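Before a colleague's protein record goes any further, I have to sign it off. I want your independent view on whether this chain really folds as the tokens say. The record follows directly below this note.
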Amino acid sequence: MNTRRKLLVALGVGALVAPLRSLAQQQGKIWRIGFLGVASASGYVKEMDAIRAGLRDFGYVEGKNIVIEYRWAESNPERLKEMAAELVALKVDVIITHALPGVRTAGQATTTIPIVIADGPDPVAMGVVASLARPGGNITGSTGFQTELAAKRLELLKEVMPRLKRVSVLSNALNPNNAVYFREMETAAKTMKVELSQYEVRALEQFPGAFSAMAKQRVEAAVISEDPLLNSNPGVIAALAATHRLPAVGLTVFAEAGGLLGYGANRPLLYGRAANFVDKILKGAKPGDLPIERATKFDLVVNLKTSKSLGIKIPQQLLQRADKVIE
């Protein structure tokens, strides 16, 4: 074989080996995924299971080809900033987070590492992405219509209690979405001729005081805001509502924990969708080119056991619409 032919053969073999070697390296790569949690892990067990199950569907298995770095801030803003910085320092390949505090903090910590929103309010209205169709930057993910659902929960209370006049709203004072959330409810409250009052907490130990204050003001029912601190403690809130004989509505987990009504986006389904974004990003897609997805499944839960203890009759029409009735 002459020198020219040897060179061509060598080049041909090299051209074949290079992509194969690259593919082998890619297949053997261990991806590092960060999860930035705003509240506590105990309140998001089903959601984390959904994320891991979604990742497994795409072939990503913890301990095999992915490592998930979990960070939970326990509703402490300063801790949230520190943990976001930790994930950036670890040079994770992608960060999954949730709620407005998590999204904003992650976005402030990095403009290069892709960020996937597992669930949160409208990111356009909150100013974290340019548009739902083309987010731009390094953020994409899903929205669960949190702000819009606030008014819907108030409507459900009014449907159950047609003469309802005074309603309290339990909120986390540290959540920057509170003002928007409350304004949305006020608009709906005016059409229903309902008076709203807001009770804010910053930590779990402040919950009893908030409910005692509601009792003193003789409010007739309560709406539990959608917030990681409140989402993580549905049993505590439901027990306090029961103690003060206060009909209340919150997320579906709230009704399952003993609250009267629960309504919201199917969170395990929503969090599981985060895996779809992660897979596309790890395969080379730019987060700014991936459209923000809106929740498509919403669940209504009615706790008949609680309604009976409160002496409230649930309309048959509402029971027929319920996805789950607890007896």
